């Protein structure tokens, strides 16, 4: 899994077009303020190490939220960080399980609609930790 983590003033998105036929029809616009945002790419090799990926992602996201002093996070599937891509079903499952574990730890979690391109606007803070790349 590859991830870009951002410390943001806000993240706004609006669903633009469906990219997967088997997902429901969703039209959603949302603005989340004072949040961390993760652009995450689930890779093919992650399918063989599901539990490790989930555990390490949750640990990484908790670490990052602590570092940037945030209490909420946005998980955004972004399949453009690697040429290795898992199945869409596996990626959706990973994101869902990470979300559930973070919520169980008292973290407010938002996800963008999976299987959609979205128009988005993001205001990333300027500090060094405001822009982090991680690989699990």
TrEMBL record:
The keyword Signal does not apply. One of its GO terms (cellular component) is cytoplasm. Gene3D superfamilies: D-tyrosyl-tRNA(Tyr) deacylase (3.50.80.10). Pfam families: tRNA-Thr_ED (PF08915). Residues 1-136 form the Threonyl-tRNA synthetase editing domain. Keywords: Aminoacyl-tRNA synthetase, Ligase. One of its GO terms (molecular function) is zinc ion binding. It comes from the Archaea. This is Editing domain of threonyl-tRNA synthetase.
């Amino acid at each position: 899994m590859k991830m870009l983590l951002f410390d943001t003033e806000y993240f706004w998105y609006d669903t633009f077009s469906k990219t997967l036929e088997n997902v429901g029809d969703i039209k959603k616009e949302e603005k989340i303020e004072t949040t961390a945002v993760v652009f995450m790419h689930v890779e093919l090799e992650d399918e063989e190490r599901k539990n490790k990926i989930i555990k390490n992602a949750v640990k990484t996201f908790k670490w990052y939220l602590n570092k940037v002093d945030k209490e909420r996070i946005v998980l955004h599937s972004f399949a453009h960080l690697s040429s290795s891509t898992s199945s869409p079903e596996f990626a959706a499952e990973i994101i869902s399980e990470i979300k559930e574990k973070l919520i169980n730890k008292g973290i407010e979690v938002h996800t963008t609609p999976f299987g959609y391109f979205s128009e988005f606007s993001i205001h990333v803070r300027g500090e060094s930790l405001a822009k982090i790349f991680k690989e699990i």
